[in-house]
Design goal:
By secondary structure, the protein is an alpha+beta fold. The protein contains 8 helices and 12 strands.
């Protein structure tokens, strides 16, 4: 009787994690494990993509304004200084709340770059996604838009590309004419997008006397939305102290109604009468900032009235991101 031949399998080459390419989720994993990619090395990749960075703009100049432009302000631009200066052939890099056709970025004919902030991102780290889009735009041919993609998990973040000493000074616009150098001669596609965007834009003004506070006008009433850098629990305690004492308003007819939570920041919101403009709340906002600073410095336990006020504010808190 012939002996059975022992079957041997050739050893698969072993790849390090860094060498594993990305393939379809249901395809065999390139590492040779025999499992599907999504159940093997794709699991770690998916986790890296979806893991949420709570404060993606932390460490950047103007963190509160980054949050406001991402979530609250319809039309605004900011000049962005890069580490080491601008590359040759790139006269400027400008952050914009929204770009035409919802493009993630645009390299203009003159070589300048527009980077869109209010776009869907592929991962849980907005900073890394924006940095990847910015790098694509800097390398793109003039006159071309840039499409978004999944950024490498080990790619740079905005904190790695932008000058940490540079100023962050938003300019709020009444419309989106900044999209094109000559709006009157825009292509029909861009002109139609511009018209739709302008029709939907809520009139917004940035206050000059305090940081990251934005007045906006709606049909029924106006609002002030103020992005604040203080730790959430400490800020809510301070707001509760002022609210219980009847000192949380910004003048007659105004009312602190709640807050948003966005990208690790808390954004108190006031209702304002429709006749109250941005200039009318400049002084009251500055005075409120002084009252808030005093309340933040208090560490005494909340009184029963203050606890009830805090509960009311917490119940009216809405998470944006």
């Amino acid at each position: 009787m012939a002996k059975k031949r022992v079957q041997t399998k050739a050893k698969r080459p072993q790849l390090s994690d860094a060498e594993i390419p990305v393939v379809g989720a249901r395809e065999p994993c390139p590492c040779g494990s025999g499992r599907r990619y999504k159940a093997c090395h794709g699991r770690a990749a998916a986790h890296a993509v979806t893991e949420l960075v709570q404060r993606p703009f932390e460490g950047l100049p103007g963190e509160c304004d980054w949050v406001a432009l991402r979530e609250l302000v319809p039309a605004a631009t900011v000049e962005l200084p890069l580490k080491g200066g601008l590359p040759e052939g790139v006269p400027s890099v400008t952050l914009a709340t929204v770009l035409p056709m919802a493009w993630p970025a645009l390299r203009r004919d003159d070589g300048s770059v527009l980077l869109g902030l209010q776009n869907d991102t592929a991962s849980g780290d907005i900073s890394r996604d924006l940095a990847d889009t910015l790098q694509q735009a800097l390398a793109a041919q003039p006159g071309t838009p840039v499409q978004g993609r999944r950024a490498p998990a080990d790619g740079p973040r905005l904190q790695d590309l932008l000058d940490p000493e540079g100023a962050f000074e938003p300019v709020v616009h009444s419309g989106f004419e900044f999209w094109v150098p000559d709006a009157e001669n825009a292509t029909p596609e861009v002109a139609a997008s511009l018209e739709r965007a302008n029709a939907a834009a809520i009139p917004t003004v940035k206050l000059t006397g305090v940081d990251a506070a934005y007045w906006c006008e709606t049909p029924d009433k106006n609002h002030l939305r103020w992005v604040m850098p203080h730790p959430e629990e400490q800020l809510l305690d301070a707001l509760a102290r002022l609210h219980a004492a009847g000192r949380s308003s910004l003048g007659e007819g105004t009312r602190l109604v709640g807050s948003f939570r966005a990208h690790g920041m808390t954004v108190p919101v006031w209702d304002l009468p429709s006749g109250v403009g941005a200039e009318d709340v400049e002084k009251p906002a500055a005075e409120f900032a002084e009252r808030l600073a005093a309340a933040l410095a208090t560490d005494a336990p909340l009184t029963p009235d203050e606890r009830r006020a805090r509960g009311g504010l917490t119940n009216r808190q809405v998470t944006l991101s």
